[in-house]
Amino acid sequence: MWKFIKTNWQQAFFALVGLAFLTFSFRQLVMGDIAGSSATFAMSFFSFFYSNIARFKRFKGLGFEAELWDDKKKEAEDLIKRLNTITSSFSKEILLGKVKQNRFTSGPEWKNHWKLFDELKGAHEDLGQTIDLSETKRQMDVYFIFDITSELYPKLGDAVSIARVDAERKIKREFPEPIQNAAEYGARRQQLREIPENIKDLFSIAEKDDLARYIIDWGLKAKNVLEQNFDITIEFDEKTLNDLQYVSEEYQKGPLQVSDRLIELSESR
Question: What are the two backbone dihedrals, phi and then psi, of residue 230, each rounded to the nearest 5 degrees?
Fold first, then answer.
């Protein structure tokens, strides 16, 4: 309160003086003293004007052509807000455009993508712009995780496919044609169908789930079914499992923190 009085005492003083003059002006007007009312109203006006003079950018004269700093400030704030929206949209389009560009030709260049993200974010901050790029970052994370895991998945998927073919051959050896026991043959085929088929749409899974964990669980389920029902053992590549586990752990932590190891995995193709 003391700080406010100390910095604004002049405005408060002239506002009170203006209010006193205005009250006296109305009193004189009621009493029929037009001249006295006009004079005190003029004093009231100038008192109120002086109490707000800091808010005026320009005052031309008694024609009352004036511009308030507050009005111009509001216009500037609205303009800045609109410009922030436009630049935010441009930044998002630039980032996602770079991520999607040349994906099926030269391949993704995630080191450059994340460098561009940091540069744009830093540029906005340097300009004093508060722009939320969290949704753009989330979309980039989906592509990032997809690119990493789509290179790791085939190393498990190929092993499962080969083992599945071996299981098929084993059933054919157990039940040569013509099939003598249809019930047992049908039960054996059902066990074969319990082996998870190849994952169809990795990107859709990445959009809503932990894709790396999904692939690990898929591979382990296939491994268990093959061992239990067909006595076929799959030896998954240990490094591939470790890499998938690392990607899953980083995903589970929350907003993905881009690390050198993740970038290295994305460039393994």
Answer: -130, 0
